[in-house]
């Protein structure tokens, strides 16, 4: 089923739906509906329907987990750039947006926390790729380019592993996942990188170290609640470090800390701060980011180097980096490190706390990558690796790149994790050139 309409700038958008199995290993069982939105730029439309029909397709896989496809009022940035050469398909990955969205309400229908965790096993990269293949077949597309940002890059590696014959090229930005090893490896790399990013931020805004310390001291002596009624603890405050993941968001953190306290005595956190901090650390818009975050690294024991259970890896690895402890004298801000407390105290996540515990204990994950297939890959592929990325380790990214044949790497220090949002034209043109486009 497809519906056609236009954006404000004349871009044509076409809504596509496809019905797929919930569990791809049980095709006769329960089904879910998957949604994708197609974008055809006004510039391409002006050249006529014959030109539009000749344009190849590009499938965009969003970051996450739990991130839905973009919903712009008009094309801008990297989408404007790619719309000159492609018809863009923006997939709502299963569990997001209009594709069987997962949240505390929908999961409650599946029963106990154990049953809910079992349900969530069907929402990882392997199933997302099979959904994409079902969409491609339903639209009658022989092959397409796949572009994965962040977690979308992880999914792209899965695509290269299990359905490479239908890919014209693969583009990855900030998303070369580690192919082997336990999730602990991720955090052993990202905690030091995040410490360096903290140092960089506080060197630029030295007054913010004092401001943050003042907020921490206030939280240790007062019971503070955000405007949604949930408690603001030091560990939850540390999630503001997610803003350090991109150049464009650093100033947002600075402005937020500027207005942390209200009144001349500075004895009360301002509603402005509580509102802004609450918006930044709430997972209301994307609950699965927190609940499923570490499960995206789940692999069989033989690939994970021991136990396949993730077991709150970031929380355990934090013990080796005491500067990130909420009890430290001047706690550092966290990056993509989800702790039990973040789930337990968030109003939209609290009902899923036991589910998250069950998911962390899963010890029989299927493989997300085919190492032999990646080693003989013939699909033109290119990846942007950001040297100072605090979310996806440069070292692990380059390790992965060395194991994927026909993959070209463009490493740059100009961006953190948000290169496609800062200068999408430069990033995408570079990767397209590396793949012969």
Structural description of this entry:
This protein is an alpha/beta fold and 437 residues long. It folds into two domains: 2-179 and 369-434, Alpha/Beta hydrolase fold, catalytic domain (Rossmann fold, 3-Layer(aba) Sandwich); 183-360, no CATH class. It has 20 helices and eleven strands. The protein has helices spanning 42-45, 49-54, 77-82, 104-108, 113-120, 125-139, 151-162, 183-204, 206-221, 234-237, 250-258, 271-281, 287-292, 301-304, 313-318, 340-345, 353-360, 371-375, 394-401, 419-434; strands at residues 2-6, 12-21, 31-40, 57-61, 87-92, 144-149, 167-173, 261-262, 268-269, 381-386, 407-412. The strands form two sheets. It has a nine-stranded mixed beta sheet, sandwiched between helices. α6 (125-139) packs across α7 (151-162). It is globular. The two termini are 32 Å apart. The relative contact order is 0.14. The model has no long low-confidence stretch (mean pLDDT 96).
């Amino acid at each position: 089923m497809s519906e056609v309409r236009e954006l404000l700038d004349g871009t044509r958008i076409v809504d596509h739906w496809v019905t797929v199995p919930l569990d791809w290993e049980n095709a006769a069982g329960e089904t879910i509906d998957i949604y994708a939105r197609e974008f055809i730029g006004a510039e391409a439309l002006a050249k006529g329907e014959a030109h539009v029909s000749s344009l190849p397709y590009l499938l965009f896989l969003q970051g996450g987990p739990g991130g839905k496809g973009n919903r712009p009022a008009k094309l801008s940035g990297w989408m404007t750039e790619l719309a000159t050469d492609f018809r863009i398909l923006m997939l709502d990955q299963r569990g997001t947006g209009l594709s069987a969205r997962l949240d505390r309400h929908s999961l409650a229908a599946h029963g106990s926390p154990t049953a809910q965790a079992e349900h969530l096993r069907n929402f990882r990269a392997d199933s997302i790729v099979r959904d994409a293949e079902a969409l491609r077949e339903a639209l009658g597309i022989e092959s397409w380019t796949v572009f994965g940002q962040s977690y979308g890059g992880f999914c792209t590696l899965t695509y290269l592993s299990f359905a490479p014959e239908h890919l014209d090229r693969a583009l990855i930005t900030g998303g070369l996942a580690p192919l082997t090893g336990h999730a602990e490896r991720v955090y052993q790399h990202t905690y030091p990188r995040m410490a360096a990013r903290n140092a960089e931020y506080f060197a630029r805004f030295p007054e913010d170290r004092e401001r943050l310390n003042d907020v921490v001291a206030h939280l240790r002596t007062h019971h503070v609640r955000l405007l949604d009624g949930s408690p603001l603890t030091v560990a939850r405050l540390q999630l503001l470090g997610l803003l350090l993941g991109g150049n464009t968001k650093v100033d947002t953190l600075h402005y937020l800390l500027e207005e942390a306290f209200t009144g001349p005595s500075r004895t009360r956190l301002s509603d402005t701060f509580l509102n802004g901090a609450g918006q930044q650390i709430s997972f209301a818009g994307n609950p699965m980011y927190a609940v499923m975050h570490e499960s995206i690294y789940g692999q069989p024991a033989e690939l994970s180097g021991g136990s396949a259970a993730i077991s709150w890896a970031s929380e355990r690895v934090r013990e080796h980096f005491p500067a990130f402890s909420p009890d430290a004298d001047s706690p550092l801000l966290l990056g993509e490190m989800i702790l039990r407390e973040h789930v337990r105290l968030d109003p939209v996540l609290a009902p899923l706390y036991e589910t998250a515990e069950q998911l962390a204990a899963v010890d029989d994950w299927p493989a997300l990558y085919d190492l032999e297939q990646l080693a003989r890959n013939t699909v033109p592929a290119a990846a942007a690796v950001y040297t100072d990325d605090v979310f996806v380790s440069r070292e692990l990214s380059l390790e992965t790149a060395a194991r994927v044949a026909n993959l070209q790497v463009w490493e740059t220090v100009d961006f953190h994790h948000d290169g496609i949002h800062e200068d999408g034209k430069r990033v995408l043109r570079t990767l397209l050139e590396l793949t012969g486009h």
